[in-house]
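Page 37, continued from 36.
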């Protein structure tokens, strides 16, 4: 797609001349997510004007690496001609039509593509708009599955400590990060909570896995008759601080659930579409979930499309005569949006043509090597990585693993310095998140890690090595 340079220049000049106006309107009218607005309005805001490749440009023309893939979802970078073209071509046909009792071409073709890519055994696709809604649908499907089969006593869920599955009521109910979820407790249902294996703080991989499996098996022995499903962030638990599940653990979880007739819901919203070095994280352990929620990377970071994939067994429990009222009464206005589905198809096609998933597996080795020297820094307690998902946990005392206090804002301060140096990311408490676009080159990865290293040193020791 050709950009008119004259028009682009006019836009840039307008932005440069109007930063103060945009900043004032932003503070006056916009309430930002996961943001304490009292802090935010006291500062000069970063206002993004455009993107090119893996960089974002603010209205003042400064460039920044997109070090967290615009909230973990960018695949090919920004302003990708092939993805732009897919939207434009679909726009010439139709922007939206409902899937309630109707169909549209891109949603059909995308569903076929998703099933061909998904772990074998998943066979049907239910669309929605974002990760939280894909999870919400997963929970409702799992619950109604048992109701439709006449097993009305199976109504509860299992989740894992420090889980994050989204911000709608059902998704919040199976979340287990007190900071995000505690205030809403009176509105929520209460799941059973078992440990997510956290080797750094649970005595190593073997002890952490054993704690998880023992807790799960004990719970299943006692309560499986009332449990509908367990929801898991496979292989990487994201919002808790990039906690990596040891190899084989997910497989053993799946085997236990199957033995006790409890469904497995895999929340692949963050881990899907190549982020961990496999198309889906479940593939690392060869696991096929009963229900799988996907979003984020599905459209390459362009438009909000999500999907919930299920096995034929789940679908069949809803496939009945009209009079039986086993219909899944759930839907969204923009479900299966043609523009979103068209760009998702283009994204997946581009991933295949360019071998993106295979490249991520190789780049993960490179990233591991780049991050290794950070382990020697005095306040880096742990580095956790799977594919191009990484978290650097900062601690006050490396020997005792004593964390920094929340009020010290250590992660926030590191990310502020990184931003000044030209890298955007967000912290998870004391964990610095690094989730670059999947197409980042080795040179770009090295430069981003350099900025992270300098920023950590500046904040934790007050010095940067030359």
């Amino acid at each position: 797609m050709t950009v008119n340079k004259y028009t682009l220049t006019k836009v840039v000049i307008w932005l440069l001349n109007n930063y103060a106006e945009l900043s004032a309107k932003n503070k006056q009218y916009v309430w930002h997510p996961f943001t304490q607005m009292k802090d935010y309005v006291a500062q000069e805001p970063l206002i993004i004007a455009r993107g090119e490749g893996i960089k974002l440009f603010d209205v003042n023309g400064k460039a920044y690496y997109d070090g967290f893939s615009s909230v973990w979802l960018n695949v090919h970078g920004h302003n990708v001609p092939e993805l732009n073209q897919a939207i434009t071509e679909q726009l010439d046909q139709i922007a939206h039509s409902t899937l309630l009792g109707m169909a549209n071409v891109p949603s059909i073709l995308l569903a076929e593509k998703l099933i061909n890519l998904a772990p074998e055994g998943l066979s049907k696709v239910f669309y929605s708009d974002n990760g939280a809604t894909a999870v919400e649908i997963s929970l409702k499907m799992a619950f109604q599955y048992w109701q439709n089969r006449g097993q009305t006593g199976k109504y509860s869920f299992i989740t894992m400590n420090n889980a994050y599955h989204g911000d709608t009521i059902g998704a919040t109910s199976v979340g287990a990060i007190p900071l995000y979820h505690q205030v809403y407790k009176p509105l929520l249902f209460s799941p059973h909570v078992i440990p997510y294996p956290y080797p750094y703080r649970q005595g190593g991989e073997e002890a952490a896995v054993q704690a998880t499996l023992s807790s799960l098996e004990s719970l299943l022995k006692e309560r499986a008759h009332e449990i509908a499903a367990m929801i898991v962030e496979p292989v990487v638990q994201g919002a808790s601080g990039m906690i990596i599940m040891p190899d084989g653990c997910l497989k053993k979880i799946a085997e236990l659930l199957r033995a006790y007739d409890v469904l497995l819901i895999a929340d692949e919203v963050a881990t899907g579409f190549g982020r961990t070095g496999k198309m889906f994280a479940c593939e690392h352990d060869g696991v096929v979930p009963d229900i799988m929620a996907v979003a984020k990377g599905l459209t390459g970071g362009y438009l909000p499309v999500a999907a919930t994939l299920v096995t034929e067994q789940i679908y069949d429990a809803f496939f009945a005569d009209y009079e039986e009222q086993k219909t899944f009464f759930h839907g969204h206005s923009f479900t299966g949006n043609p523009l979103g589905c068209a760009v998702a198809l283009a994204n997946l096609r581009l991933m295949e043509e360019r071998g993106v998933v295979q490249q991520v597996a190789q780049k993960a080795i490179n990233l591991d090597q780049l991050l290794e020297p950070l382990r020697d820094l005095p306040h880096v307690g742990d580095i956790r990585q799977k594919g191009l998902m990484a978290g650097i946990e900062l601690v006050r005392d490396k020997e005792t693993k004593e964390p920094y206090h929340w009020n010290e804002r250590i992660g926030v301060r590191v990310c502020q310095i990184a931003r000044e140096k030209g890298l955007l990311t967000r912290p998870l408490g004391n964990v610095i998140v690094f989730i670059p676009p999947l197409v980042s080159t080795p040179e770009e990865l090295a430069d981003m890690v350099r900025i992270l290293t300098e920023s950590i040193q500046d904040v934790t020791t007050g010095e940067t090595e030359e």
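Residues 210 and 310 are 29 Å apart (CA to CA). Flag for discussion at group meeting. The chain has a mean pLDDT of 95.
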